[in-house]
Amino acid sequence: MPNFAECFREGPGGGLVLSGQEISTSRGVRNPNACQVVCAETETCAYFNFYSDGGFCVLFDSFALAEGVSGPGRNGVTFGPRVCGEQIAQKS
Known about the structure:
- The protein has a single domain (8-81), classed as Hepatocyte Growth Factor (3-Layer(bba) Sandwich).
- The mean pLDDT is 77.
- The protein contains one helix and seven strands, in the order βββαββββ.
- β4 (47-51) and β5 form a beta hairpin.
- The strands form two sheets. A five-stranded antiparallel beta sheet has the order 1-7-4-5-3, with helices on one face. The protein has a two-stranded antiparallel sheet with strand order 2-6.
- The protein is mainly β.
């Protein structure tokens, strides 16, 4: 599997995570690369959050926004686009 890490972003405190309407959540996903594959195979998915604690892959539609977070609780969160090279809108 190719390494797509160059297009992923990570929490935690002071970092960014996605928010918006969730499409679905998959459990037992191994890593962010696998989560991106799940997103790419889901027609309405534009972005994903991957939670390393538990292997959760949460898919979002194209209306998702990246927003800043601070404090504990967001460690191990990685997010990215359906396909590397796509921009993620950021909440202002």
